[in-house]
Amino acid sequence: MGADAAFDALADPVRREILTLLAQRDECSAGELSEHINRVGRTAVSSHLRVLRTAGLITERRTGRFRYYSVDATGPAQEVIQLLQELFQGSLDATKAAAEQGAASDAGTGTAADGPVRRAM
């Protein structure tokens, strides 16, 4: 298990919806989740939960005959977040540098970056 399994699990929109609900509510049973997900039935929600659990993205807590699920931020989710951050950080840095360079060159010409240019009459 690792980032590859996590990305495979995240490829499905229903599983992303389940993760979103779990992130908002901290912990839910399969029944509670299926009440909020209208795209698929209760059995499919359970199947998606199994995939998410196997990928290490969620944890399961059993209480009697009930199972409660929550996001596991300590597992492969950390690898996914780190990988995405590394992928996008270079683009963000380049965008920031371009914006700063554009602002610096606009400042030298007195264009919109400084506000309206006032002309003497």
Task: Describe it.
- The protein is 62% helix and 12% strand.
- The protein contains five helices and three strands.
- The protein has a three-stranded antiparallel β-sheet.
- Helix 1 packs across helix 5 and helix 3 packs across helix 4.
- The longest helix is centred in the C-terminal third of the chain and has 34 residues.
- The radius of gyration is 23 Å and the shape is elongated.
Provide the descriptors you would attach to this structure in a database record.
121 residues, mainly alpha, 3-stranded antiparallel β-sheet, elongated
Brief digest:
The chain is mainly alpha-helical and 121 residues long. It has helices at residues 3-10, 13-25, 30-36, 42-54, 76-109, and strands spanning 28-29, 58-63, 66-71.
